[in-house]
Amino acid sequence: IKISEFTLIGAFCLPNMSVCFVFFKSTIELFVNRLDSVESVLPYEYTVFDFCSENTMKRPSENLGQVLFGERIEPSNGYTAVTNVAFLFILPSIMNSLVIVLFLSGMVAMIMLRTLHKDIARYNQMDSVEDAQEEFGWKLVHGDVFRPPRKGMLLSVFLGSGTQIFIMTFVTLFFACLGFLSPANRGALMTCAVVLWVLLGTPAGYVAARLYKSFGGEKWKTNVLLTAFLCPGVVFADFFVMNLILWGEGSSAAMPFGTLVAILALWFCISVPLTFIGAYFGFKKTGIEHPVRTNQIPRQIPEQSFYTKPFPGIIMGGILPFGCIFIQLFFILNSIWSHQMYYMFGFLFLVFIILVITCSEATILLCYFHLCAEDYHWQWRSFLTSGFTAVYFLVYAIHYFFSKLQITGLASTILYFGYTMIMALIFFLFTGTIGFFACFWFVTKIYSVVKVD
Fold first, then answer.
1. Quick check: 68 and 187 in contact, CB under 8 A?
2. CA distance 265 to 242
3. What is the tally of helices (H) and strands (E) in the chain?
4. Is the dihedral of CA 100, 101, 102, 103 positive or negative?
5. CA-CA distance, 245 to 238, in Å (whole number)?
6. How far apart are the C-alpha atoms of 439 and 382, rounded to whole Å?
7. What tens digit of pLDDT does each residue of 83-131 get?
8. 310: Cβ contacts below 8 Å, ≥ 6 apart
9. CB count, 10 Å around CB of 111?
């Protein structure tokens, strides 16, 4: 809005002097970004309707995050909109959730430490082989616990992509907590995340290659190609289909062709070469050394009870991690779909740390129970147990769509669930990677402190 009267924009006085300098500006420019509706997820440019006329003033440039969210910054021509901003006091709810999660995590850690301490002490006090043969539990599978998993290629690729997402999320939230990614700088969070993902191809390639080599794999070319293209390709294909729908609807959220080419260039020219570099160093290093040898003949797994079978354990494993994020998840979904600004990055970073701890401890606990039941297939199970949190996230997103939103129209519905599937896939890789590496550390630790002849 142009204000005809002079507006004070700053003032200062020289010390020990009676002279003050006052600065005035005759006009204040008001810019607009997009038009939204509670019945649609399709944003439109401010000048798409007849009552918002074009303005000859220069349009400021948008960053990548603003483009992805459909913002087209334009100067207004005297039209304004009044928005009611409601500040929600959610600190008590968040703190109660964190206290409960911390208490449960402490209980799990205490039980695990006490039980493992007794088991290790009992095993190390055995005097004869006959005593060891009479024992049962996790020590009996020491010759099979590091046996390469089935479909180790796919697992290593998932873990490489999950590592890339984990580091990207941690660094982005850390910068946001320090104030570098202020909510006032619209789109900065998304821009930072995309740039970091592109630059973190090296850790993805290294982790995937190193684990695949430790699994005994030899098809290193296939491994590095899948790491560079599988998960990013699925996300890009989903995003491209959503972008076609946005183009067809004439929405401002449709990414321009030039920006789409720029993102592809970042992927193919930066991320893919960095992934190949990481894979080169990963395959160059020797495989991960395990504390115990693997037997040539696999041990037969006894009949399992209902609670130690794979599927029930995987379902139970995602409940506790989801319980520590669902409150923040509500506000994150509000910021994405209900056009509200999210500003609680400090709380979000704290919940991120609690999520990592909870995923790790819940997966380790279930892994211990399965090893005690002489089931040594822990690699995929640990990944899926923690990754099942993404399924609860997907169920909650469906509940949120029907209970909180007023979206109508087929295009908006397809867009909502299309973008939700992208978020669920990213969250699946993220949490699954946490669970695997937590169990990998746990299994390596307990089998390195027992006496195995």
1. yes
2. 20
3. 16, 6
4. positive
5. 11
6. 7
7. 433 344 456 556 666 666 677 677 667 766 776 677 667 766 665 545 5
8. 377, 381, 384
9. 13
Distance CA 433, CA 62 (A): 34
Calculate mean pLDDT across residues 396-413: 88
The token pair at 446 is 């307990």
Backbone φ and ψ for 57, nearest 5 degrees, come out as -65, 155
Q: How far apart are the C-alpha atoms of 338 and 40, rounded to whole Å? A: 10
What is the spatial distance between Cα 377 and Cα 310, in angstroms, rounded to a whole number? 9
Q: Note whether 424 and 390 are within 8 A (CB).
A: yes
- Record the pTM: 0.83
Alpha helices in 31-151 (DSSP H): 64-68, 91-124, 129-134
Beta bridge partners of 17: none
Query: What b/e string do you get for 270-302 counting C-beta neighbours within 10 Å, with b at 16 or more?
Result: ebbebbbebbeebbeeeeeebbbeeeeeeeeee
List, for residues 328-384, the tens digit of each pLDDT value: 788 888 888 876 666 677 778 888 988 898 899 889 888 888 888 888 899 999 999
What's the pLDDT tens digit per position in 13-39? 545 444 555 555 555 666 777 777 767
